[in-house]
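This week, think about what follows.
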Amino acid sequence: MAGLLTGLILATAVAAGAAQSGVAQVEGPEAEAVRAREIAFAKTMSDRDFDAFLSFIAPDAVFFNGDTPLRGRDAVGDAWHRFFETEVAPFSWNPDLVQVLESGELALSSGPVSSPAGESSGRFNSIWRKDPDGQWRVVFDKGS
């Protein structure tokens, strides 16, 4: 647990530095794999495909709704379902930073969140874990 927390803290610090520099950072094949997963995850919102959205989330994930943690895929689904009820997606996101730990087990993706008009409305930060089946899934998510 301490290792995961340390990784989360370091990944958040990296995201903050990259956000300030405005430079996209993606290095290596694992980072490219996470970047591709993040883009596919975001596409589920624009495609209005809630079931596909859920498939990117780890069963034990924690998403933050403001300061309140949503624990588990079911809780995230209950809270996020409303974002899929309209014909047009209420927001979109795209990674401009991806970093993977040397172990290849955890990764950070971060980038801008945009309104339907394309205006910046915040920033997302997601921690991805490579699960035993080889698939990257979100385990932590918090916007700012």
About this structure: Residues 1-24 have pLDDT under 50 and may be disordered. Residues 2-143 form a domain with the Nuclear Transport Factor 2; Chain: A, fold (CATH 3.10.450.50).
